[in-house]
């Protein structure tokens, strides 16, 4: 656990970058520092590994004041990842990753073997090992940066806007990768970003800082989005706060109907389903093929002969209400198809079911 105890940083010119910051970063969790430019995120992060020394208060690492630990020893237990990876341009990828093991005096074979293992872990092909950083894309370089920070298996990882220099698609995949890695490794991670979407996606807890290095709120993402502590936090969270909240509500809240499917091979004589405006046509394995409006059902023959409308699905037991809402918006029926992990239809969330769930959430605001 990392503990900030009334930590202050006043730079030589009098700027107070961090003001009386007290918070705890629990072991094995991702704590995100988020806030507008200049609010003291980077300063707070760098005081943990003493790249910057606090001018007041204490930072404790598992109960030990970091000021009592000499910086090289301290940093051996703390991985550090920065924007644009900060790789050594003249060293091969494998040697970049092995930097800390080399410094720790590991023999070259063992250090390189560890580096190769980590490259694979962060999703890079072993072919990359002998390249130089300029021969990699920005996203690949970031992965190398993460591998390098993990090389000596430090219990703590500090990440300063590590994904902000890559395009949104690469960024999303790096975020997924970090969450996957963290599920295996359980590091204590402090992650700095100015992007609230990144913060609520990655953080077990999110610390919102305001300019002057004051802690405005520390909460898990769902609580932060539901109950911002004050106007500053509310404004920082932005206009999409309500929609973002849906990501933290399980789609399993939705009542499903199981009587709205029709097999593509079903004989339609006598006509059926005509009292429901829309039906899901499914294949023989119960996978969705599309929506059909009842009025378009042929009088005889099978639904396979009819024109099907597009559909959206969400996975029951995994996806959020936001995914379910997205699925309704992708379908002219206005209904979302719930599927299991293998893509088989388990039911339909109608617009009414969605309305009910949304009303419940809206009712819960301010609890
Ligand atoms: N060496 C320094 N001397 C004086 N002031 C500094 C120094 N480094 C940072 N500051 C000031 O301290 C404040 C906090 O800076 P910091 O870099 O920690 O903010 P940040 O939240 O990480 O910002 P950004 O998101 O823009 O990177 C800013 O006002 C900055 O100008």
UniProtKB/TrEMBL annotation:
Name this polypeptide is given: Osmoprotectant transport system ATP-binding protein
Organism: Streptosporangium lutulentum
Superkingdom of origin: Bacteria
SUPFAM superfamilies: CBS-domain pair, P-loop containing nucleoside triphosphate hydrolases
Family of the protein in this entry: Belongs to the ABC transporter superfamily.
Keyword Transport included in the entry's annotation: yes
ABC transporter domain location: 2-237
InterPro entries from the UniProt entry: AAA+_ATPase, ABC_transporter-like_ATP-bd, ABC_transporter-like_CS, CBS_dom_sf, P-loop_NTPase
Keywords attached to this entry: ATP-binding, Nucleotide-binding, Transport
A molecular-function term among this protein's GO annotations: ATP binding
Keyword Kinase assigned: no
Pfam family, one: ABC_tran
